[in-house]
Amino acid sequence: MLEDIGFKVIHCMDEIKEDILPSDQEFKDIFYSVCPLVKYLPEHLREEFKNDLFQNILKHNGRSQAGLPIHRCRTVEIFVKKEK
Question: Residue 32 and residue 68: Cα distance in Å, rounded?
Answer without folding.
Answer: 18
